[in-house]
Automatic annotation (TrEMBL):
Protein name per Swiss-Prot or TrEMBL: Palmitoyl-protein thioesterase 1
Annotated EC: 3.1.2.22
Keyword Signal in annotation: yes
Pfam families on file: Palm_thioest
Basic and acidic residues composition bias: residue spans: 317-328
Region of interest (Disordered), residue spans: 311-358
Record flagged with keyword Signal: yes
Alphabetical keyword list: Disulfide bond, Glycoprotein, Hydrolase, Signal
Residues of the signal peptide: 1-22
InterPro entries hit by this protein: AB_hydrolase_fold (IPR029058), Palm_thioest (IPR002472)
Enzyme class, broadest EC rank: hydrolase
Superkingdom field: Eukaryota
Length: 358
């Protein structure tokens, strides 16, 4: 990725300093013609860190597409190595509460009329959790890349020398439903096995709640999702890391049977507000070529240009309604490569050096 000299972010001692703006009060105007881009928050994937080179480059690209954009990479801790550790180990509900408090207290984000959000892999469903549970400031457009919105049915493979990953995955293989595992290991909290659905409903610490799958529905979750202007879900058409890959589109996979989102009760009974959002044209299904999280500059530029920028500029271009399977997709979804839970630099693309991150 070409590094732009006008990057608006400085990372000092692990902290993001927005040096371009002297006063948060003057950052946004109550004017329909104001061309100030909305701030963008980014949540990275499993095995990544908020201050990794690839994340900085994604922030740079977002700013270059819409000059003047304040980009805030979400972090659980300021030290990058601890932030990476927290992507494997921690209570997602507690982590999300911290992120909600951090964003609400940020001197610039908190003054914005809205923010835009992009989530890479597991960061996508975590940002959806932000929309549902907090949404202060509210999200206008949410873009997710290869996210596990309907959970995963198996855990990822690890690099030989990635001991944090190997330890976490070994523990997950014992009993993913135990209180200790559900409260401490991040991937377990979006594990969803159709053959153990009742255990999932009873024990899931995170996903069963934010998907509103339990008998008592949270109406706030539904209202907040329906308020989005755009919810853009990218699925990687050759994803071998996320199983099943169709989870990125909220599809339900049980063995060889694939149930598209619009054929599910979650949609027909509108547990999450997705049907309401779809009917107003805000629910968008897109594909990216290649394996998990190998993203090209072109694809990211297209996404950021279509859905981010000033508050009243546009609502994003419309997409054809997707067919049931990737191979039947009717639309031309644009160009892209592959990428991983952590985007990092290689040539002209944003790619990962993590191999199999979520």
């Amino acid at each position: 990725m070409a590094i732009k000299n006008h990057l608006r972010l400085l990372f000092t001692a692990g902290s993001l300093l927005a040096t371009t703006f002297a006063s948060p009060v003057s950052r946004f105007e109550d004017d329909d013609d104001d061309d100030t881009p909305l701030p963008v928050v980014i949540w990275h994937g499993l095995g990544d860190a908020y201050n990794a080179d690839g994340m900085r480059q994604v922030a740079d690209l977002a700013e270059s597409v819409n000059p003047g954009t304040l980009v805030y990479p979400i972090r659980i801790e300021d030290a990058g190595n601890r932030d990476r550790y927290d992507s494997f180990v921690g209570n997602v509900t507690e982590q999300l509460a911290k992120v909600c408090a951090d964003i609400a207290a940020h001197p610039i984000l908190s003054t914005a009329p809205a923010i835009d959000a992009v989530g890479f892999s597991q960061g996508g469903q975590f940002l959806r959790g932000y929309v549902e549970r907090c949404n202060n400031p509210p999200v206008r457009s949410l873009i997710t890349f290869g996210s596990q919105h309907n959970g995963i049915t198996r855990f990822r493979d690890c690099e030989t020398n990635d001991w944090i990953c190997r330890f976490a995955m070994a523990v997950l293989g014992t009993n993913p439903w135990s209180p200790t595992v559900q409260g401490k290991l991040v991937p377990a909290q979006y594990f969803r096995d159709p053959e153990q659905y009742e255990k999932y409903l009873e024990h899931s610490n995170f996903l069963a709640d934010i998907n509103n799958e339990r008998s008592i529905k949270n109406e706030t979750y539904k209202k907040n999702i329906a308020k989005l202007e755009n919810f853009v879900m990218y699925m990687f058409d050759e994803d071998t890391t996320v199983v099943p890959k169709e989870t990125s589109w909220f599809e339900d996979v049980n063995g060889t049977e694939i149930t598209p989102l619009r054929a599910r009760k979650l949609y027909s009974e509108d547990w999450l507000g997705l049907r309401e959002l779809d009917r107003k044209g805000g629910l968008k299904f897109r594909t990216a070529p290649g394996d998990h999280m190998q993203l090209s500059d072109e694809l990211l530029t297209e996404a950021f240009g279509d859905f981010f920028g000033p508050l009243n500029r546009h609502k994003g271009r419309s997409d054809p309604r997707p067919a049931s399977h990737v191979g039947d997709e009717e639309s031309n979804m644009g160009s892209g490569g592959r990428s991983e839970g952590r985007p990092a630099s290689r040539g002209g693309d944003v790619e990962s050096d993590m191999g199999n991150d979520l």
